[in-house]
Task: structure prediction
Amino acid sequence: MGLLIRSSKIHAAGCYTTSPIRKGAQVVEYTGPRIGKREADARYRNSPTTYLFGVGDGSMVIDGHGTAMFINHSCDPNCETDERRGRIWIVALRDIAPGEELTYDYNLYDGDEDEACCFCGAACCRGTMYSPPEIQRRVRALARGKAASRRAQAESAAGKGPAGKRRRAAPGGR
Result:
């Protein structure tokens, strides 16, 4: 099947098919050097863009090179990924017409403070490329952080230190 890289409305460049693709077809393999997650984190510490794909338990990643790295995220994708014998394949979720941009849901599961904003434009867009479980984890962590901040502010206003003990007044009543 023919694939073409060109400008995308979703993000910079995208991958498009020049021929029909049938539902269930293996479209392209996600290829590149395999490196450890720690090495990838160090290598791309200050890079806003990566083409990393977790393999197996996520301790190894593929540092994407090739056609598949240009397949953009969508919350309403026409493809999905499938790990087969340690290899990552992009597989068609439905019949895809020539000229369509290929997309899959990245379902990101780790990242620092990065919001990983989504620009897919789908009616069901989550607004982020993070997976629903990762979104829930982040919401819970944010709620815990806000609750801790409110407790600290309340303790400070009550004249208590972080350990919950009352501070002694300075000599002279201050």
